[in-house]
Specification:
The chain has helices spanning 2-20, 106-109, 117-134, 137-142, 145-170, 174-203, 233-247, 257-275, 279-296, 300-313, 322-331, 354-357, 372-388, 403-411, 426-433; strands at residues 32-39, 45-50, 53-59, 65-70, 76-82, 85-91, 96-102, 111-115, 343-345, 351-353, 362-367, 393-398, 419-423, 440-444, 450-456. α7 (233-247) packs across α8. With 467 residues, the chain is of the alpha+beta class. It is globular and about 75 Å long. It starts with a helix and ends in an 11-residue tail after the last strand. It comes from Flavobacterium arsenatis. Residues 333-467 form the Thioredoxin domain. This is Thioredoxin domain-containing protein. It holds the Pfam family Thioredoxin_8.
């Protein structure tokens, strides 16, 4: 760790040397520098982003360091990503930042140095305080209202004192302050939104009638149409918690879980339509609601009802919109439609279309080495079903890319009678078959036509679909 910090500081000294001939930057100079080192890298690059859009892909050198000069970088909040993890970084004018990252302990490892380090290290420290707080929340949600309120108010005051102290010491800009204060406030607000729901789930007690009339007054402090927060995760998480709370504020009787989910999520769409006046923000929120719902729902009729409502409210008509693509793909998976053509790879490396391997009624399921418990559970489940339904073929598709690792995984198990394949191109498979959940299962007839494209292997009534 010591040597790593030395290297980072040395790298930054080079940056400083580049700037030192003109210690005062010109008013129209927005040059900035960003670099650092990644320990235990998971890939060979760092993504530098603004509002979820990639600005630059910065390659790692042989020694796992990276460095980028930006000729013109507007002050503001950015993020850097070493997949699958990401974190925020804030640049004031002419900031020059180096960062230490260990991919195996991502958030806890991050240390900034250079011009602009103090405010960014504050944001990381506040983030880690919130994460530590979050890990202790479940027992707090079990508590009665008085004890819960006392606990979260005490936690907030402690972090607020930390925020005020650092604000006075660092004297950061007003623009940075809105993100710093938001990180403090939205985490606190989220706890208040979550409490009634989680308390009832964990204790069985409906607390709504005991909440004081001013319990939700903090919502008056939230500027829901502040475009700066559109992609800021503390706000996005708060928004999700708030909408879940509001959308589930009534009893659902004699309604299936699938229909309940539809009603709740259509209500969320209506809330977003009313709450957000900024069209760009509203469309992003509608997209987030739609994407989250479509990851969970497995009923094609309800999907259509939901998407009809989504399209009626959203003004984002871009055909590249992810929700539009998912909606179109869902419609192509209706019962009686041909199974979309995707390429699979067998253990010998031979590429075949999925249609060419379907000779009789077939159950198609998916797995990944990264979820070994699901790998084993899904195959064991299929082996049980196979005995009772010998008229079906069972096709397992691994979504991982590495052929050798896939074959090595299979050698650890004996799944006799299951046809094993690997997706040649996972993105193609994901887009055409809408495989956003590894638990998805697809049933076809003997001609490769879809019988049911949205069913779970672990549904207690799964075998009722086999006929």
């Amino acid at each position: 760790m010591h040597n790593l910090n030395v290297r980072l500081l040395f790298s930054f000294s080079l940056v400083f040397a580049l700037c030192s001939c003109d210690k005062k930057f010109k008013d129209d100079n927005f040059t900035a520098y960003f670099g650092g080192e990644v320990t235990n890298p998971t890939n060979r690059y760092v993504l530098f982003c603004k509002d979820s859009e990639v600005i630059d892909t910065i390659p790692l050198n042989e020694d796992n360091t990276f460095f980028k000069t930006f000729d013109s970088l507007a002050p503001g909040l950015y993020s850097f990503k070493h997949e699958p993890e990401y974190q925020y970084v804030y640049f004031d004018k002419n900031d020059s930042l180096m960062v230490r990252i260990n991919s195996q302990d991502f958030d806890e490892s991050i240390i900034f140095c250079g011009r602009g380090e103090e405010k960014n290290n504050f944001m990381m420290e506040l983030y880690l305080k919130n994460e530590d707080d979050k890990n202790k929340l479940f027992e707090v949600f079990d508590a009665d209202l008085q004890k819960f309120t006392r606990n979260i108010d005490s936690s907030y005051k402690s972090k607020e004192a930390f925020y005020n102290k650092k604000k006075e010491e660092i004297k950061w800009s007003e623009d940075f302050d809105k993100y710093a204060k938001a990180s403090l406030d939205f985490f606190h607000y989220s706890k208040k939104e979550i409490y009634p729901m989680v308390h009832e789930m964990r204790t069985g007690e409906n607390i709504d009638g005991k909440l004081p009339t001013d319990y939700y007054d903090f919502r008056n402090n939230v500027d829901f149409n502040n475009a700066a927060f559109t992609n800021f995760s503390p706000f996005v998480r708060y928004l999700s918690n708030m909408m879940n709370n509001v959308a589930t504020d009534k009893e659902f009787t004699n309604v299936s879980e699938i229909d309940k989910a539809l009603e709740i999520n259509i209500k969320k769409l209506n809330i977003a339509d009313t709450l957000f006046k900024n069209e760009k923000i509203k469309n992003i929120v509608l997209n987030n609601i739609a994407f989250t719902y479509l990851l969970e729902d497995q009923n094609i009729v309800n999907n259509k009802k939901f998407l009809d409502k989504y399209h009626a409210l959203s003004t984002d008509k871009d055909q590249h919109n992810e929700i539009v693509k998912i909606g179109n793909a869902i419609q192509s998976l209706k019962t009686g439609s041909d199974l979309p053509d995707i390429n699979l790879v067998d253990v010998d490396g031979k590429v075949q279309s999925i249609g060419s391997i379907i000779k009789k009624k077939t159950v198609v399921f998916f797995w990944t080495k990264n979820l070994e418990s699901h790998l084993v559970a899904s195959h064991k489940k299929v082996l049980e079903i196979q005995k009772k339904h010998p008229d079906y073929d069972f096709v397992a598709i691994c979504v991982d890319e590495n052929q050798d690792k896939w074959k090595a995984s299979l050698t650890n198990y004996k799944f006799k009678g299951i046809k094993e394949y690997r997706a040649e191109n996972f993105e193609d498979l994901k887009d055409k078959l809408v495989v956003n959940k590894i638990h998805r299962t697809i049933l076809t007839d003997s001609n490769g036509k879809i019988d049911n494209a949205f069913v779970s292997l672990f549904d207690s009534k799964f075998e009722e679909n086999l006929r």
